[in-house]
Design a protein that fits this description.
Elements: E1 7-8, H1 11-15, H2 19-37, E2 43-54, E3 66-80, E4 85-89, E5 98-100, H3 116-133, E6 143-149, H4 159-174, H5 181-192, H6 202-209, E7 215-219, E8 224-228, E9 234-240, H7 247-250, H8 255-272, H9 277-281, H10 289-297, H11 302-312, H12 320-327, H13 339-348, H14 356-378, H15 383-403, H16 410-421, E10 426-429, E11 437-443, H17 447-464, H18 473-476, E12 477-480, E13 487-489
Parallel strand pairs: 1-13, 4-6
Antiparallel strand pairs: 2-3, 2-13, 3-6, 4-5, 7-8, 9-11, 9-12, 10-11
Helix pairs in contact: 3-4, 3-5, 4-5, 4-6, 5-6, 8-13, 8-14, 10-11, 11-14, 14-15, 16-17
Bound molecules: 2-acetamido-2-deoxy-1-O-phosphono-alpha-D-galactopyranose (NG1).
Length: 491
Amino acid sequence: MAGLVPVQKQLADSYGPAAGELESRYEQLRSAFSKTFHAEPECFARAPGRVNLIGEHIDYEGYGVLPMAIKQDTIVAVKKGGDKLVISNVDGNAYKTQTFETDPKQEVDVANHSWANYFMCAYKGAFELLEAKHSKVPEPCGLQIMVHGVVPLGGGLSSSAALVCSSMLAVLAAHGITADKSEVAEFAAKAERYVGVTSGGMDQAISMMGMLGVAKLIEFNPVRASDVVLPPNAVFVVANSLAVSNKAEAAPRRYNLRVVECRLAAIMMTLALGATPEASRSVQTLKDVEPKVAESLGSPGLDACLEAVHKHLHEAPYTHDELETALGVPLDSLYTGSPASLKVLQVAREGGGFKLRQRAEHVFEEEKRVLEFKAVCDGSASADDKLASLARIMNASHESCVRLYECSCPELEELTTKAKEAGALSSRLTGAGWGGCTVSLLAEGRVDEFLQSLRNSFYQSRISSGHTKEEDMPKVLFASKPSSGAAVLQI
Ligand code: NG1
């Protein structure tokens, strides 16, 4: 248990010394709410985005990751009222108001991808949490909701998790329920999958359990977070490649395909290690393979898993036929409960097969990097030596995302290269990739010069061509410190 979601009485409890800058935003949200619903909100709930420092594409394989919450967040104002769920946004031009019935069992309309679908995920998740963890489930009732989010969309900074977590807290708060942070993280992660992305639980966990001043090692099953104190001279700069990654829409060819490839790799490794096809088919994640490797090779740990990958998985992509022959069943039968994964299999038939060895190698190596990153932070080396080690680990992660996981894109490559030319010790894609943001490591004192240089080399031409605007630059390129996690605000 991570402790109850805090209920705060003043903005400073969430935002620290920066609270003053937030007052006008809360006022704007309050006034949009009263203009739309002719009443005052009962409370607010906020949840931040995050930047992942190390551990990419391994949360859904059960492995630990190391992100920090960022100051950009989504705030939801809520009040009980009416007999429908009315979901509005302060930016009503971009995000149209949507109305839903109050039945928590309704399906999320995946075919019509809309921003409000994330609210519906949260709404369903809130009731699932209540059913699982609370003796008395409240009667569903109408809710009036106004949202204001400033986490860049499709940027790999978890705008979706910020919306899902803040919405879930708002629904729970409206029903008078204060839940445990890790329970909300767990149910929010499950609920977000209703939009059709078979994602892991990192984003919701850090959004709920983030803390001012420290990054977190997030581990799963059960979800939990432990503090990671970053070297005092380390500054992390987030830069948006401006290539928007539409994760939900592209999922069958990208994100969800990787999740399927990892599971197939885990199954094929288990089979090669001597399990029957039937037993192999029940394996879900690469982490599940670790004890089987230990038993079979006589040595535990990630290096033994890598040895098994190299020994048992071939480099050429696996075909449907090859996998079905080895497993003795149609691949579809492995995914009967998951329409999103069935869609992957359907799309993959026309694609280039499944790259099992490359994906598994990335996952085990990346988890080694997570553990090493934490060990460096916890260790007693000088601050400069720590920076050098963290930079090496982060660069290796990016290299692996490019070469083995194939989740980069030309814009991210240009941006990481230019970031290093501009003085970053390391620069890597963060989040799912295929667009979105990079995170670069800088030594304190080098940041202003870096921001100016990257602005000239990467962004100036994009401002001139209208790709982004001068006034949006603070949202596109910024230094970030670990910020606090989600909260309910009664202000
Ligand atoms: P983004 O796309 O950055 O929100 C996604 C997943 C994470 C994790 C990372 C890759 C969602 C909600 N989040 O993050 O769980 O797998 O990719 O490390 O899909």
